[in-house]
Amino acid sequence: MPKKKKQKQKEVELVIGKQNRMGQLFVAPPVILFLAFTLIPMIMAIGMSFTKYDVINPPSFVGLDNFRKMIHDEFFWIAMKNTCVYTLLYVPLGLLLSLGAALFLNANEKFVGLFRTLFYLPVLSSTVATATLWFWILNPQLGLLNGILKIFGIPPQAWLYDSKLAMISIVMMSLWAGFGGNMMIFLAGLKGISPVYYEAAKIEGATRWQMFTKITMPSITKTTFLVSTMLIIGTFQVFDQAYVLTKGGPGNATITLVYYIYNNGFKNLNMGYASSISLVLFVIILLMTALNTKINKADI
Amino acid sequence: MGIRKTKKVRSFFWYVGAIIISLITVYPFLWMIATSFKPEAEIYSNSLSLFSDKFSLVNYKKAFEVIPFGRYFLNSFYIAGMGVLTNVFLGALAGYSFAKLKFRGRKTVFKLLLSSMMIPGVITMIPQFLVLKNFPLVGGNDIFGQGGQGLINHYAAIILPGAVGAYAVFFMKQFFETLPDDLAEAARVDGCSEFRIFWNIYLPLILPAAITLGIMTFQSGWNSFMWPMIVLNSKDMMTVQVGLAAFQYQYNTQYGPLMAGTVLSTIPTLLLFIFAQKYYIQGIAFSGGKE
Question: What is each CA distance from B50 to A133, B262, B271, in whole angstroms?
Answer without folding.
Answer: 15, 17, 22
